Amino acid sequence: MKMSNMIIATLREVPAEAEIESHKLMLRAGLMKKMAAGVYNYMPMGLKALKKVEDIIREEMDNAGAQELLCSAVIPSELWKESGRWDAYGQEMFRVTDRNSREFCLGPTHEEVFTDIVRTTIKSYKQVPLNLYQIQTKYRDERRPRFGVMRSREFIMKDAYSFDTNQEGLDVAYDKMHDAYVNIFNRCGLDAKCVEADSGAIGGSNSAEFMVKSEVGEDDIVFCTSCDYAANIEKAESTAEIAEKEELLPLEKIETPNEKTIEDVVKLLGVSPKKTAKTIVFRYDDDKLVVVVVRGDREINEVKVSNAVNATTDLEMASEAEVRAIFNAGFGSLGPVGMKECTLLIDEEVAKAFNIVVGANEDGFHYKNVNFGRDFEGTVGDYRNITEGEKCPHCGGTVTISRGTEVGHIFKLGTKYSESMGATFIDEDGKSKPFLMGCYGIGVTRTLASIIEQHNDENGIIWPMEVAPYHVVVIPANSKNEEQMKVAEEIYNKLKAMKLDVLLDDRNERAGVKFKDADLMGVPMRITVGKKVSEGEVEFKLRSNSEVETLSIEDVYNKVESEYRK
Ligand code: ATP
Ligand code: MG
After folding, report:
1. Which residue minimizes the CA distance to atom 3 of ligand 1?
2. Which of 52, 209, 239, 395 could form a disulfide with 467 if both were Cys (CB 3.0 to 4.6 A apart)?
3. 22 in ligand 1 pocket by Cβ < 6 Å?
4. Mean pLDDT across 77-84
């Protein structure tokens, strides 16, 4: 491409709302332009990079035996009602109504659609296994769109769905996708780590996420420093810290007129926060309540709680008014002792502690010397987040926690959708059975942003070769110099003939401006045709280092070729 013919959308000033490097750079380098919150237009340079990522994904998916198709983004509500997700999906779903008042959504994901395609096409065990995928635009009305296309309201996803007749088949499909994802992220130059993820009601090691480390990531990832255990904090099992054994003391009710928080109670009574427990009430599935008790210094893990009660909607903290209406006490005075009939989940550490302090379900009072079994009961389990420095659930080593962003997700769905939507096949034994399904997503636009997040410096993007929109830029230092322009054009044409993506910066600009733009756009290789051209020499530079090599024109082609193939 000749840059004199290009729409160049680079920016000098970056909007203040761009907080992270990739967002700033995608705007500064002119890869995309914002149209509304979480809605972007891709400019030619951005689209070209996006297509490179898509091509890698396509190749690896095809190699893994998956087949590409393309579904509509407009999905009738009936399909979602069949799976029960029309209501459960909530406000994140963009809903539209047609002129006849028929309801549709703009697809946030496509499990229902693929299940429908297969149930109306595939009848026999002989026609599977199948893995179908698409690279398509998704819509989610995110509560907080931010960081550019890292969390946008319209984004491109590769979503794949596998259909098998038995568990072994599903395991094979899942493992193939795992391997394909490793290849995809490697080829994208992305350091993405596969971590165990929560798989809800299905449980087990049936779900994994590919995470990139990022300080602004919205997930916490638990890593073991001794073994290769890595899990999303939502999933990571915690090991209860065993409290020192004590004799059980008599239960005592104490006045705590001004003590509303754990810190207040700890201060008043001079006890360790480990000897306190907090009691939180959540609402789910519209009208159900669950009460969770964890140690005062711990954080509740809502995913573990949600799985324990088989919630089909997100948990929401009950309001103080609601809590008061049911338990006769405000937030700061709740506790498990004598709690009115309700689902009560007790974290293992609380059940194993001695003589703890809890709220008395009466404003201004707490109980002292409370003991599980004697003073209260409940379902004991792991309902809290693991914390930095705790024991690895696999090897007993020590865990650390870092922030991360999910770029891909692989998930064994089992018969969740095939059962609810009646997607069945006739098996060898003549019986009708539901398909075993898996689903496998990659955020394509988020992957693109993550690549930039991991590959940049103060001057701009540094594209890894395989996803670079252009591999090499040829710059005549002085566009008014005929010889420089002529040689630059020759090199440009020859490199294009070598099937490389090449830019010729034939704009009537100063060399400095061209260099700056080439750096900002992140072109991996730069050839400058300057004064030495009269001696048959040009300059070669990689974006990734500062070294400038002088090469003969003949040698520059080999150099480009070998760097491209590296
Ligand atoms: P997150 O926890 O980040 O919201 P998710 O669990 O909702 O992700 P999935 O439903 O598994 O995501 O979607 C598959 C992939 O789509 C994710 O791995 C992610 O890369 C991408 N993705 C999801 N939501 C967005 C978004 N709002 N903007 C850009 N990419 C997204
Ligand atoms: Mg989400």
Report:
1. 406
2. 52
3. no
4. 96
Q: Concatenate the DSSP letters of all residues of 163-200 into one string.
A: EESSHHHHHHHHHHHHHHHHHHHHHTT---EEEE---G
Preceding omega of 129 cis (within 30 degrees of 0): yes
For 193-197, what is the mean pLDDT?
96
Which residue type sits at 78? E
Listed residue (479, 537, 467, 533) closest to 504, CA to CA = 479
Number of H helices, E strands in the chain: 15, 31
Task: Determine the Cα–Cα distance for residues 543 and 475; give it in Å rounded to an integer.
Answer: 14
Which of 50, 48, 108, 113 lies closest to 78, judged by CA? 113
Local structure of residue 2 (DSSP, 8 states): B
pLDDT tens profile 148-164: 999 999 999 999 999 99
Task: Compute the chain's Rg from CA coordinates.
Answer: 29
Whether residue 357 contacts residue 370, with contact meaning beta carbons closer than 8 Å, is answered with yes
Sign of CA dihedral 145, 148, 153, 158: negative
Q: What is the pLDDT of residue 203?
A: 64
CA separation for the pair 327, 319 (Å, rounded) = 12
- What ligand 1 atom has the least distance to the C-alpha of 159? 14
| Over residues 478-482, mean pLDDT | 95
| C-beta 155 within 6 A of ligand 1 | yes
Q: Cα separation of 133 and 70, whole Å?
A: 8
Expressed in angstroms and rounded, the spacing between residue 194 Cα and the centre of ligand 2 is 18
159 lines ligand 1 (CB under 6 A): no
For residue 88, the model assigns a pLDDT of 85
Residue 14 has pLDDT above 90, yes or no: no
Both tokens of residue 63?
A: 């190699």
Q: How confident is the model at residue 215 (pLDDT cuts 50, 70, 90)?
A: confident
- Residue 259 banded pLDDT, cuts 50, 70, 90: confident
Q: Can you give the pLDDT at residue 491?
A: 98
Categorize the per-residue pLDDT at 202 as very low, low, confident or very high, splitting at 50, 70 and 90.
low
Say which residue the tokens 């002529």 belong to.
486
pLDDT score recorded for residue 244: 93
Amino acid, single-letter form, for residue 121: T
The full length of the chain comes to 566
Q: What angle do CA 35, 468, 59 make, to 5 degrees?
A: 95
| Residues 226, 228, 232, 236, CA torsion sign | negative
Nearest to 198 by CA among 183, 167, 226, 220: 220
